[in-house]
């Protein structure tokens, strides 16, 4: 994760999705699945999966760090959904503390309160920081208990991720 932030900090504003994809491939990430043109938007490194998304105002790089698949036969899944994701939020808080410590060894890290587009980022829990010119967002996401997994994701963005008014 630290290496990903290092790559992101090197990019000038505004980010270019194709340039970011190329730099990530050079740094060891590999295209995953069918490769969309003009550049791969889904990359993998070990067990990590990364997606590059963009709209006219922002480019975001998202990495799935941990995932719990939908399984109504699993006591852990049922407990997570019915008890407000307590264990998953605890996991995110511990991960956030470790991440800030690691980032703090190389960068100046500032806490940040972002107003995120709830349709784009369906977070149950979120922590945000500013590292150089990059927004670093760690979130616990669960869009729909019936058909989407619970995910812990890390997002990096340079553009505005705020909800339009």
Question: How would you describe the overall organization of this protein?
Answer:
With 165 residues, this protein is of the alpha+beta class. It has helices spanning 2-10, 17-26, 75-82, 86-104, and strands at 30-31, 42-45, 48-54, 59-68, 109-111, 123-131, 134-141, 150-157. It has an eight-stranded antiparallel sheet with strand order 1-2-3-4-8-7-6-5. A hairpin with a 2-residue loop joins strand 2 (42-45) and strand 3 (48-54). The longest helix is centred in the middle third of the chain and has 19 residues, at 86-104.
Q: What are the main properties of this structure?
A:
165 residues, alpha+beta, eight-stranded antiparallel beta sheet, 4 helices, 28% helix, globular
Gist?
This protein has 4 helices and 8 strands.
């Amino acid at each position: 994760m630290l290496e990903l932030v290092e790559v992101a900090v090197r990019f000038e504003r505004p980010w270019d999705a194709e340039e970011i994809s190329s730099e990530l491939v050079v740094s060891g990430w590999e295209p995953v699945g069918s490769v969309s043109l003009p550049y791969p938007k889904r990359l993998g490194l070990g067990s990590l999966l990364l997606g590059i998304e963009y709209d006219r105002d922002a480019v975001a790089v998202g990495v799935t760090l941990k995932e719990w698949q939908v399984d109504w036969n699993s006591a852990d899944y049922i407990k997570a959904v019915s008890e407000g994701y307590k264990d998953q939020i605890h996991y995110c808080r511990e991960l956030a503390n470790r991440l800030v410590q690691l980032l703090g060894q190389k960068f100046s890290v500032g806490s940040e309160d972002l107003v995120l587009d709830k349709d784009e980022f369906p977070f149950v829990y979120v922590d945000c920081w500013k590292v150089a010119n990059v927004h670093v967002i760690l979130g616990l996401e669960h869009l729909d208990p019936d058909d989407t997994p619970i995910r812990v994701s890390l997002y990096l963005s340079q553009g505005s991720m705020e909800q339009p008014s």
